[in-house]
What we know:
By secondary structure, the chain is of the alpha/beta class. The chain is 33% helix and 28% strand.
Amino acid sequence: xxxxxxxxxxxxxxxxxxxxxxxxxxxxxxxxxxxxxxxxxxxxxxxxxxxxxxxxxxxxxxxxxxxxxxxxxxxxxxxxxxxxxxxxxxxxxxxxxxxxxxxxxxxxxxxxxxxxxxxxxxxxxxxxxxxxxxxxxxxxxxxxxxxxxxxxxxxxxxxxxxxxxxxxxxxxxxxxxxxxxxxxxxxxxxxxxxxxxxxxxxxxxxxxxxxxxxxxxxxxxxxxxxxxxxxxxxxx
Length: 236
Ligand code: ADP
Ligand code: ADP
């Protein structure tokens, strides 16, 4: 059974100052199996980010369902919803834009746990940093003191803080130098294996996702137009 399933998902935005809607996502069905990676590719503006955010209810869902272990997130309320949200975490394109520059890495990594009223065990921050290949001394420093690749490692560590089961990575390497991209993709693959994570990796560039994906889905104008095993893509 899939860990993450999207059924007939639609996100329609109102057009500013005009009648009608933008069908950013329109009738998408996806299944992502435990421990696997679904790569979602397509040109800019086709609806990838909106789809990723709609899964986490960060975009307004017009229609359809998002199921985690077969459970519809929209049916959950209160503590059950809070608990379920921990299972789904997001890694963003630009770590600098998504990390608060005034917060130390220690604060950035412990904030998700505080927000969920979870105890922060001694050594937890060092453990998170170690998982992403950063030294424990990074905890005292601030985002601007790191390189782009290191900042994305911090963004990944923050996503791991709540021990999620599913990670949605939206263009996780497209803001990085080409030489650093492979390192971050390799890290994501290692973490998947070690922690048994299930991934949805979004990218406009097929070259970015095909090496880390088991299945690649191609999005066009809000819909999935093609889906194939990543292996099949190497022959073309
Ligand atoms: P992608 O991630 O593939 O670049 P997006 O999901 O960002 O695509 O955008 C899909 C479409 O939805 C685009 O036409 C975009 O302009 C529109 N869109 C995205 N977010 C919003 C929003 N908050 N309000 C209105 N339209 C939006
Ligand atoms: P990307 O293409 O990298 O996904 P965008 O530059 O399209 O990002 O969007 C940046 C932010 O602006 C996103 O939060 C998106 O939801 C929002 N956005 C995009 N298009 C529109 C739009 N037409 N109206 C309002 N907000 C939008």
